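>> Question from a student workshop board

For tomorrow's exercise we were told to take the sequence and the ligand below, predict the bound structure, and bring the output to class. My setup keeps failing. Could a helper post the expected result so I can at least see what it should look like? The ligand is protoporphyrin IX containing FE.
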Amino acid sequence: MHKRNRLFITAALIYALLGGLVALTRLAAPDLLPGNVPRIHAHMMLLGFMLQFIYGIALHVLPRFSGYPLYSERMANWQLYAANIGLPIMLAGWFSWNNLLVGIGGAISYAAIAMFAVNILLTVKARAPGR
Ligand code: HEM
Ligand code: HEM
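>> Workshop helper replied:
Here is what the output should look like for this input. Compare the format with yours to find the bug.
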């Protein structure tokens, strides 16, 4: 497996563990963590765990299923950076009730989703036989 795809899986599992800890902390000591804690938990689990797990698996499996190499390894590397820079900025924004930070992090996370979409679509696109 490509190192980048392994990093996506590793990041996903780290987010799952941290996101679960955030929720358990919230239950055990409701006032301990500052900010919009349910939203932090939700996006650690959904954007951090679920989506990055999908990124890692899809970037590995879909080129093999389609029979063509990934359209751009470089774009997928940038996707890894964007996903893991964007989400921490979003989380920092929610921890500090700062919607500007959430917006900046959100735009970077969105760039990761957009790169993923373009890369996967160009990888699995219909081609004439033999091309
Ligand atoms: C370790 C396992 C988990 C625990 C202990 C846990 C616990 C919780 C708790 C206590 C809340 C309510 C927070 C509050 O309103 O104060 C919550 C909300 C939520 N959880 Fe989890 N959860 C877990 C795993 C997950 C996973 C795996 C996902 C998604 C993949 C998830 C998605 C959500 C979402 C979307 C909400 C709603 C957030 C909101 O109301 O804004 N959780 N969880
Ligand atoms: C570019 C990425 C994303 C951004 C910028 C973003 C931003 C936001 C914001 C600002 C809210 C609050 C909405 C409101 O209160 O009016 C929200 C809520 C929510 N988002 Fe996201 N989101 C993103 C990706 C996702 C993804 C990929 C999922 C699911 C797979 C998701 C699931 C949810 C859920 C379940 C809620 C409502 C629960 C909560 O209050 O936390 N989001 N999101």
